Every structure is written in C-alpha cells, then in structure tokens.
Amino acid sequence: MVEYHIERHSGVATYVQIVQQTKQAIRLGLLRPGDQLPTAREVVEATAINPNTVLKAYRELEREGLVEARRGLGTFVRRTLGSGPAESPLRAELEAWAARAREAGLDRDDIAALFTAVLEKQAERDAGQHADRYAEPHADKHAERNADKHAEPHFQGEQS
Predict the structure, then answer these.
(1) How far apart are CA 39 and CA 66, in angstroms?
(2) In sequence order, what are the residues at sequence separation of 6 or more whose Cβ sits closer than 8 angstroms to the Cβ of residue 17?
(3) Is 72 left (phi over 0), alpha (psi -120 to 50) or beta?
(4) CA 124/CA 116 separation, integer angstroms
(5) Residue 133 pLDDT > 70, yes or no?
(6) Alpha-helical regions (H) of 83-107
(7) Fewest CB atoms less than 10 Å from the CB: which of 24, 87, 97, 159?
C-alpha cells in the first residue's frame, strides 16, 4: 500500500501531490492492477488533509483511467504505467548515483534539479531526432517540387 507524504510548502496543490505519488507508485510497480488505494479516511488520518482533497485526487486518477472506484469496496488500480519494475538494475545504478551526489555535497533539491535538467536535455535530443526523421522525407518532396518549378520551361506549340 502507498503512503502519501504531503509537502505543504512545495507550491504544488495537495491533490496533485497525491496524484503524482500514486502514478509514481504505479510506474515503479509498487502498486499493481487490482491493488487497493488507501481509503480517503486513512489518507486523512495519515496526512491531516481535507477528505475532499483526497476524493478530488482519486477522481482525477479515475478520469485518467488508472483507478476505478467500487462502491462500498474502495478504489483499485486498473492498469500500470511505464515498463520498469521497482527493482530493475537501472534503479540500483540510480541509487548509487544519488548516493555519490549526496557524498559530493548535493542536497535533495540539488539532486532533483540536476536529474530533471538531464531528463529535459535528453527529451530535447529525442524530440530533435524525431523532428529530423519527420523532416527528411518531407524535405525530399519539397526539393522535388522545387526542381520541377525550375526545370526548363516547355511551351505548347513549340516544335523542334
């Protein structure tokens, strides 16, 4: 079962934090299809937040098709996100990297900022590669059209 940790001074709405933490637990395989989320009452008792906030988060997750509410039974995970299990070799490598970053004097926010910057840079590279792949066939068609426009003119009625 997932335990929610609410950071009140983060600037992120409380219900969004619940949504994000639930998605992360699903993505990491900590929550699997069929698993039950904590009841709104359990979340309220653990975090001291308004029950409507929990219900709003659960409705958002339901709207996204990740969970389903079953009247009288609770809220259950419907599907997974991502493909990496919680205990993959990449996770171990990332934990080792995070430990080295802490040893180098970086705090949690520094590590998160560095990791996010690297992810964003990678996403930009991926988007650029996608744009290049998409542009190439179209560039060829454009060049063909331009070549046709600049070909020697052919006038009807001209006889050689």
Answers:
(1) 16
(2) 4, 6, 7, 10
(3) left
(4) 12
(5) no
(6) 89-103
(7) 159
Token pair of 150 as six digits: 């600049």
Question: Which residue did the predictor score with more confidence, 68 or 115?
Answer: 68
What SS3 class is residue 77?
strand
14 CB neighbour count, 10 Å cutoff: 19
Closest CA to 54 of 70, 71, 32, 39: 39
Task: Tell me the C-alpha distance between 139 and 132, whole Å.
Answer: 10
- Which amino acid appears at position 4 of this protein? Y
Among 40, 88, 84, 92, residue whose Cα is nearest residue 61: 40
Measure Cα distances from 58 to 80, 82, 87 in Å. Answer: 16, 20, 26
pTM: 0.60
Considering only CA atoms, which of 24, 85, 112, 16 is closest in space to residue 2? 24
